[in-house]
Design goal:
With 420 residues, the chain is of the alpha+beta class. The chain has 14 helices and 13 strands. The chain folds into four domains: 144 residues, Triger factor/SurA peptide-binding fold (Orthogonal Bundle), CATH 1.10.4030; 35 residues, no CATH class; 101 residues, Chitinase A, domain 3 (Roll); 98 residues, Chitinase A, domain 3 (Roll). The longest helix is centred in the C-terminal third of the chain and has 27 residues.
């Protein structure tokens, strides 16, 4: 583990100790600064340690990038760009904290840092600050001189698409997936039984029985241990129907029966202060019974029997499914096998195109899945990849603008290269 962490040091800070054998010499002069051979070698080591393929990158390419960076940072400073020094220090400290947390103790971190890199924590912090300052200045001036000045038109995006259609990646083969889902919910009979219980409880409350005692004995909410007390709460903290009732009641008033997605409530306002209200409540949860579950299973079996002909899937989904995809004939979407929604992936692996799954029960619902069709690989349409196309065109235009801009800076600045 420590070895991995120390490799990270190499990537991040460019260890001078690794190249101490190299005799330093100036490989480039850039305005009022120089670049040493040791700095160039450090940068090469950083790129290699980061896993970058160096087969097509020469030292001269890397040196040229270092020259451009120095020119840009010098120009940014000359033009008065500034960096939030506190932000630099905070960022540097966060990096050190993140690395030191990988060691058993602060002492071991400091000793390992000194042994493997020759740096103190203070020197490492300063290194981070200087690197972050350079990157921030570079980003600011490039943004103002290039990014904000580049515009992309619709015709440019479409022209790029037409000119590069043969080279664009293909849309991979996908499968059209369908679902018919019915929620396991309490029936009207179940609701009526719970409603009768709540009416009886409310009658007892209006007859003068203790709200606290009835809540402790009959409420399905954990607050029953406190006599139904929910404490103070502000708006937007409770379910809308519950909240609306609570804030529209007077102190000591008892509400009518209020229904929310949790069940049925009777609410009593205990106190009000400024924008908060304190209430007690009695809750009867609306949980499906075994009869409700069997009712849904019978309906799903009937649907499955009708699905012997897969062509009926869309119509049956529109008629019976409670899934949001019902408006689209039950179509979940088109997916590659490794893109299936996690909830359904396991089941979809076991069915072929044109087949349906068994009835599956999860999360208080039953559903049937189907592989409705195989969609062959094809070219992406313009609309499907418009955002990526626009981003690519913008990047290309920014690169062209950058090349013109950096060449102008090169002409205006003193640059001499000694590296061969």
């Amino acid at each position: 583990m420590k070895k991995i962490i120390l490799v990270a040091f190499i990537v991040i800070i460019g260890l001078s100790s690794l190249i101490s054998e190299v005799v330093d010499e100036i490989v480039a002069k850039v305005g009022r600064e120089i670049i040493l051979r040791s700095e160039l070698d450090e940068r090469m080591q950083q790129l290699e340690a980061a896993g970058i393929d160096m087969s097509q990158i020469t030292k001269f390419d890397v040196l040229n990038d270092m020259i451009e960076t120095k020119l840009i940072v010098q120009r940014a400073k000359d033009e008065g760009y500034e960096v939030d020094e506190q932000r630099l220090r905070d960022w540097a400290n966060s990096q050190i904290t993140e690395i030191s947390a990988q060691f058993p103790s602060e002492r071991e971190f400091r000793e390992t840092l000194r042994r493997e890199t020759g740096l103190t924590v203070s020197e490492l912090r300063q290194f981070y600050i200087e690197r972050f300052r350079e990157e921030t200045l570079k980003e600011q001036i490039i943004s103002n001189n290039i990014s904000r000045r580049v515009t992309v038109t619709e015709s440019e995006v479409r022209d790029y698409y037409q000119e590069n259609l043969d080279e664009l990646p293909m849309r991979p083969e996908k499968y059209k997936i369908g679902i018919i889902e019915i929620k396991i919910e309490p029936s009207k009979d179940t609701l009526d039984k719970k409603m009768k219980e709540m009416r009886r409880l409310r009658e007892r409350l209006t007859d003068g029985e203790s709200f606290e005692s009835l809540a402790s004995e009959h409420s399905d909410c954990p607050s029953s241990r406190r006599g139904g007390d929910l404490g103070y709460f502000a708006r937007d903290m409770m379910l809308p129907p519950f909240e609306e009732a609570a804030f529209n009641m007077m102190v000591n008033e008892i509400s009518p029966i209020v229904r929310t997605e949790l069940g049925l409530h009777i609410i009593k306002v205990v106190d009000k202060r400024e924008d908060e209200v304190r209430v007690r409540h009695i809750l009867k949860r609306m949980e499906p019974t075994e009869e409700d579950e069997q009712r849904v299973m019978n309906r799903m079996r009937d649907i499955k029997a009708q699905l012997e002909d897969i062509s009926e899937f869309s119509q049956l989904a529109a008629e019976y499914s409670q899934h949001k995809s019902a408006v689209d004939g039950g179509v979940l979407g088109e997916f590659e096998p490794d893109e299936y929604p996690q909830k359904y992936s396991e089941y979809l692996q076991d069915i072929e195109v044109g087949e349906i799954s068994d009835i599956i029960q999860e999360d208080e619902a039953m559903f049937i899945l189907a592989k409705l069709d195989k969609i062959p690989a094809r070219s992406f349409t313009y609309e499907e990849i418009y955002d990526q196309l626009r981003s690519t065109v913008r990047n290309l235009k920014e690169l062209e603008q950058y090349e013109r801009w950096i060449n102008e800076i090169m002409k205006e600045s003193y640059v001499e290269v000694f590296y061969e």
